[in-house]
Design a protein that fits this description.
The chain has about 325 residues and is α+β, with helices and mostly antiparallel strands. Helix content is about 25%, strand content about 30%. The protein contains 9 helices and 15 strands. The strands form 3 sheets. Strands 5, 6, 9, 10, 11, 12, 13, 14 and 15 form a 9-stranded antiparallel beta sheet that branches. Helix 1 runs antiparallel to helix 3. The chain starts with 12 loop residues before the first helix and ends with a strand. About 40% of the residues are buried.
Length: about 325
């Protein structure tokens, strides 16, 4: 994904650079994770919700701190002002992890300004593999707050005109793929993990197959139900040089775990985040209900071209836990 110039913005490049630097400073400092006021300075929407939830989890869970990489070499993908006549307005940054500047893993942040004169804040974070001289050595990004899996095939460069990022003229229709993905990922036991709407791979049918197989691990005594819904702002849809469109889909997952009947229970302990929030401590439970936050980055084929959508990245396996409740067995 090529970097674009800052020529089409109504703000000078220095303002965007200062903003990005401040965001990265807050992101890397302890206060950026644990202080709600610090979070509010630079983040909004799903990302702010994830940061606050992450801080609450780490306040009670003694698990390892996330290895959050420093982000360097930010580049700005900014639509022309006339392409965003109404608020909220957005721009996108593409950054590299410190020490991995030549690699394909690229952090993508969607910054949002909610009203005229308002502050620009980061609303959504995701990652993607982009063209690079060094091949992707792993399809997993470990240096984010959550583990993000990437499609190994690079995402094409962002299309641009006179230096400005080109937005999809069919953005509203393109964003409907988020709802289709949410529906595809919502099930108790999937009848069929594949879908004609999404290309097969680790982030689609393979993932659904793994999640759907969990009841078998309990000999069918425990059911797992996954429900997903689209959340967050209406993010811009970027056109890519190969004619495809790139759609970021912030989602909330509701995960329900139930014993098949009142005679069935399961144990949790404080070694995992959900157990720590419940103060489970090895106790028996009849059910738990968790809400988690994740973002899927989906690539749509060029308009009029048949074929399924491709999931370019998602932290579907390791989403951010937002909250959890449970019903004890005793």
């Amino acid at each position: 994904m090529a970097r674009t110039a800052d020529a089409a913005s109504d703000e000078p490049p220095s303002c965007k650079s200062i903003l990005s630097s401040r965001f990265e400073w807050e992101r890397r400092t302890p206060s950026g994770w644990k202080d709600a006021d610090a979070v509010a300075k630079v983040a909004t929407g799903p990302l702010a919700t994830e940061w606050r939830a992450g801080a609450a989890v780490r306040a009670v869970w003694k698990g390892p701190e996330p290895v959050v990489a420093g982000l360097v070499n930010p580049a700005f993908v900014i639509p022309a002002e006339q392409d965003q006549p109404a608020y909220p307005r957005f721009f996108v940054t593409l950054s590299k992890a410190n020490g991995r500047e030549d690699g394909p893993a690229t952090a993508i942040h969607y910054f949002m300004q909610e009203a005229p004169g308002g502050e620009w804040k980061a609303a959504v974070e995701t990652w993607a593999a982009t063209a690079a001289s060094v091949p992707l050595d792993s399809d997993t990004v470990w240096f984010s707050a959550t583990t993000v899996q990437l499609r190994k095939t690079p995402v094409a460069a962002v299309s641009r005109h006179a230096g400005a990022a080109v937005l999809s003229p069919t953005a509203a229709t393109d964003r409907e793929v988020c709802g289709r993905f949410a529906e595809y990922m919502s099930f108790t036991t999937p009848d069929e993990p594949t879908s004609e709407q999404f290309a097969p791979g680790p982030l689609t049918d393979e993932l659904v197959g793994k999640l759907g197989a969990k009841p078998k691990q309990s000999a069918g005594k425990i059911t797992y139900t996954y429900k997903h819904e689209v959340t967050g702002p209406q993010l811009p849809v970027l056109k890519l040089d190969d004619g495809s469109s790139l759609v970021a889909c912030p989602l909330v997952r509701a995960k329900e775990v139930r014993g098949k009947n009142t005679a069935v229970s399961f144990t949790l302990d404080n070694s995992a985040a959900q157990g720590a929030l419940l103060d489970a401590d090895g106790k028996s439970w009849r059910s738990t209900d968790a809400r988690l936050s994740l973002t899927a980055l989906i690539e749509l084929p060029p308009g009029g071209t048949p074929g399924p959508a491709q999931v370019a990245a998602c932290n579907c396996v390791d989403p951010q836990l937002l909250e959890v409740t449970g019903k004890r067995a005793d």
